[in-house]
Design a protein that fits this description.
Glutathione S-transferase Yfyf (Class Pi), Chain A, domain 2, 8 helices, binds glutathione, Glutaredoxin, alpha+beta, single chain, globular
Amino acid sequence: MLTLYHAPNSRSSRIVRLIMELGILDQIDIRVVSVARNDGSGGADPANPHPESKVPLLVHDGVEIWESNAIMLYLTDMFPETGFGRSIGHPDRGSYLSWLAWYGNVVEPVLVCEAAGLSHPFLDSTFRGVPELAARLKAQLEKTPFLLGDRISAADLLVTSPFLWMPQVIPDVQVIRDWIARCQACQSVQAIADFDQAALSA
Ligand SMILES: N[C@@H](CCC(=O)N[C@@H](CS)C(=O)NCC(=O)O)C(=O)O
């Protein structure tokens, strides 16, 4: 039994989007919960078992899996036939794990600091900044249309996701803009928008 705790228009929306791309919506019990929002709205939901009251949280037969990159890896490993991940033994497995981890370890800290207007030598030396992040993406996207070659993967969904909520931090680099547009061309973009709108109206 798989249960996803989800709040509309939040970091868990990218997990619902992946679930739609994997075609496994009917296999997951999606429970909509509230979370505390940056604008002061919302609040912790007693129905959400996440230990920090956050989303996303996936629960599989009683085991909790938290953090978006871990959840994406878990789901794509569980449903390898969908082609959205790269299984153990695949030549791109190491790159797949690296992009997923890089997102959590580098992309979110860099973009959150940028959006918050924070700068400090410790932040720069630990995470680098937006120019280095853009250079890393540009170098890859000049070689391949998606992070892992010719086919979109969960890594593309994850790494492009913050650019949807924070378009102001999209690097002004054409190959990056083209890649974001390619990733946004999927049907799941409208599907998740409709799903979240319906959840908010319910
Ligand atoms: N690194 C976590 C971040 C999760 C996170 O911060 N989620 C926000 C929603 S966008 C949340 O639940 N916030 C509620 C809170 O901070 O109490 C992930 O990517 O899964």
